[in-house]
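Cross-check.
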Amino acid sequence: MLAYIRERQLEPGERLPSERLLAERCGVTRAMVRETLAALEAMRVVERRPRSGIYLCAESSVASVDAVVLKADLGLPVEGLEADQLNEFRTILESHAAVLACARRTPEDIARMDACMADCRDRFRLGQSIAQPSADFHLALVAATHNQFLLRAANSCYLATRNLREMVFADPKVCRRSIRDHQRIRDAVASGRASDARKAVEAHLRTAGGYWTAFVASQGAPTNQRSTNADRRRGPPRQRGGMR
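Predicted model, tokenized:
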């Protein structure tokens, strides 16, 4: 069903086909469709409207982080406000994680961070994307807190933004800055300098947030263009009166 939504390029607010049609088009039973829709509804990805149908939800203040990740899986664009709030979330999480990591890190934790940085440098030298090893570095930092809930939250954040980060890291300037910042964060954590580690993370993610905001602003399609695309997929509007 997720593949169907992605292929159809459905946008928030658009109606999905009926359960029967979804089952036929996805090649599954109606029972499986109902189970999937129930899960998506719980995550505020879709909503049922009485006597109307099933709709892809617009952004919701009560949507779970899983819903944000699912939105990324569907290839739906990250909006400007959403990108800003995601970056604010990870700044709060990782700056506090850096302080905890200074007190709890082990030699193995530092070795993992070093390996991620080496991977970043190697890929950058070869002209390859460093988006994944960069995310791995941040997750290694959070993992050094030895708090699984913090790590799960951070992982969800990076899953939700992986497409955005891939595009932002296409800029070599962003890659070079990120590699330098990671070194500062790593050194502060390795030496147990909690205040320096927190400040280094905050400065790094503040810069990253600026890149995100600028990129989303430059790439986002105007609302009227998105509406035009949606109308094109639905076909010409019905005329009032006359034949239907």
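The mean pLDDT is 82. The beta strands are 15-16, 46-49, 53-56. Passed to J.P. for a second look.
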